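Quick one, tokens below. Sequence please?
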């Protein structure tokens, strides 16, 4: 799943950070899981807040933005790159893998593979941004693993705004969830992939709407597990078991990122630095 010729890995660079990028604050749901599973890893997080959202944009633009995001992380000497954004994973990961030698992972394959393992009746639902759903990246990844499975996909763009506004369990969220998810309930899915950085924050409402029999797959969590597996397998884990350095960068003023981000992380972010992404 993660391609890299062995010789390109730098065993001496274990203290080098893990790089994570996203269109903005949403990727912190992935960062949070990585912090939990890899508590000693140094991390550099980049949120492209100046060009957020990625969800409705074309593949050409997403690929350009993702290359610049990658160039920035590489300038911070990262040893591994996590594309936390589902839209960028769906539309740009393959291209990035062909262009760069640094090992990288997106969130689509880990989520797809967890869904394939979880389903009992062979009917899987996927929700995400317009870009993610129109790319068909999840259904393709799922069917590569098991062509017999039925996949039903739906864009749920309003969930992103609701999560950022902190509307996790309000009446409006419940109404929108029932409006959006009704077709998936009718299709009889037993597994639903939360194919967007923001959706894990709405897990409670989504789960209540879908019913207790539908298993929710959190791509963020599955991706963090894959990152740990890869770093372990390639002996790239940081050797020192000391408090790590976690740095956060954004491409616009950091205020809103800090405010929303602390809610997403359920913890303090600390200093956030603004960079000019057009230079990369
Ligand atoms: N990070 C995006 C994703 O996971 C959601 C927000 C956006 O549209 O940029 O697809």
């Amino acid at each position: 799943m993660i391609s890299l010729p062995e010789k390109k890995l730098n065993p001496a660079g274990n203290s080098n950070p893990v790089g994570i990028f996203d269109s903005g604050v949403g990727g912190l749901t992935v960062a949070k899981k990585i912090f939990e599973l890899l508590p000693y890893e140094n991390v550099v997080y980049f949120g492209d807040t100046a060009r957020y959202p990625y969800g409705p944009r074309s593949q050409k633009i997403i690929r350009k933005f993702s290359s610049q995001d990658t160039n920035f992380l590489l300038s911070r000497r990262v040893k591994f790159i996590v594309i936390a954004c589902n839209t960028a994973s769906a539309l740009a990961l393959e291209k990035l893998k062909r262009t760069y030698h640094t090992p990288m992972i997106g969130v689509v394959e880990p989520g797809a593979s967890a869904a394939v393992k979880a389903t009992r009746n062979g009917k899987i639902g996927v929700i995400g941004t317009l870009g993610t759903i129109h790319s068909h990246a999840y259904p393709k990844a799922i069917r590569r693993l098991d062509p017999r499975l039925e996949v039903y996909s739906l864009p749920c763009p309003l969930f992103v705004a609701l999560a950022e506004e902190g509307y996790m369990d309000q009446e409006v969220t419940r109404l929108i969830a029932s409006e959006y998810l009704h077709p998936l309930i009718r299709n009889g899915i037993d597994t639903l992939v939360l194919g967007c950085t923001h959706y894990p924050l709405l897990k409670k409402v989504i789960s209540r709407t879908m019913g207790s029999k539908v298993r929710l797959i959190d791509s963020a969590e599955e991706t963090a597990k894959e990152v740990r597996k890869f770093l372990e397998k390639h002996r790239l884990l940081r050797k020192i078991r000391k408090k790590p350095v976690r740095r956060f960068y954004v491409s616009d003023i950091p205020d809103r990122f800090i405010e929303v981000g602390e809610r997403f992380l359920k913890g303090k972010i600390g200093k956030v630095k603004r960079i000019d992404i057009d230079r990369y």
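The pocket of D-glutamic acid is lined by residues 22-24, 26, 52-55, 85-87, 129, 132, 160, 196-198 (CB under 6 Å). The beta strands are 18-22, 43-47, 80-83, 104-105, 123-128, 150-155, 191-195, 215-218, 246-250, 272-274.
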